[in-house]
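Example 3.2
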Amino acid sequence: MARGIALAAALSLLPAAARAQAFRVESATQVQVYHLRTLASDDLLHPAVLDRRRMVESLWLEGYELVTGQDLGLEANVRVFDDFGVSPTESTLDGVRARGADILYANAVFRAAGFEARAGRQVRWEPFDGFALDGVRLRYRSPFRVGLEAYGGLWVKGSSFLGSPTEQLDGTRSVGLRLPGLLDPANTNFGDLQPTYGARLFVEELAGLEAAVEYRRSTIDGKVALERAAVEVLYQKRDLGLSASAAADIDLAARELANLRVQARYDGGLLGATAEVDRYTPILTLDSIWYWFTRSPRDEASLRADVLPPGPFRAYARADVARLTAVLNPATDLVTLGVSSPPPSGTSSGGALGAALALGPFDAAADFTFRRGDSGNSGWLDLRGSWRPAARPYTLEARASYADVRDGLQPLLQGHFFGAQLRGAWALSRVARVSLVLEQNASALDRSDTRAFATLELGAGTGGPR
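Structure, written as tokens:
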């Protein structure tokens, strides 16, 4: 805790020490009061309750032109937190730390004549996933709109310096570091270094065409942990309001198509229409048990229409169908173990209807989503509205939701669920704002679940709080 605060204080001095030509410093102090149900109980119908009393301090730093006349900048985001409702050795929630500090990103970037270099902790977003990297990224875009990008470094995990377990791939055990002695360190690669590197060849803004091909590889202890290839294509005909895009992610270790998205869209001013086909497969490290047990890809197809007439009213409608492939690895003997009848097909269909209205300082929206299938039926209604008077320092937002769930696989997900939320914010000055969120939920599992979140935001530099 003390180390995290000292680090945040040191980083806050960097823009001033470098005499940046422009800078921005923001902080947010948040107090959270709520509870979570845990499964660390002998009675699954009456799980234990874990009280959470968290205080989270976040600091954002941005500096521009650290060297006069040069496009050299710095950006960083540091988070320090403490949970007074969880003991330091709390074990009811795997991966949850009672207190600590995280560097979400902290890197310097230099740009000149189409060239960009970025060094430090950075977050990289791919077509279907994102990850944090401690390393270097080099990028060059030629005057012909064709470029090359390369990056390399260490994958950020919970064992990284001020890293978080939430930044590593699913399926990787992280209990061994959080609770020493419970697990043999030889049984987990949580603390192992994970070198990661990749390259991307791209074309940008070339007669309405953008495309890219990328390769990424990650290893642990010299063994491949992840190896993927991806391709993206986007074509836009803006004068006709037409666009088409496609992205594919290939798992080179399994030699199969892991993720796919194909979309066609028309924007005609008064009317918009979208058709989309997707495949989603969890992106797991190769040593994850789920990688070999079942990866369960999900295939979806949807059609959406948007109505955008002149004036304050908007509306949309969507229809979709989805299929979850839950076939287990045929190499195991678990396919028929304990199964007395064929499992549900995993096919479901549904849709959504929604409308929004904006009248000066007031806006409101409503959404209704429904789904039916062999694994259960559900319906969700969401109502929300806000009031933001001009030239006033305060805003008010409200939200109410209702769900009727009849899950065919999870016996706890049955019945009616209600929720309401009220949020108010007040700008104390140009650089300070406070907000309070009160939330109330009720269901068959929780007769009364009350949560509260309070935030103080401070900002200095080119503007006030975000």
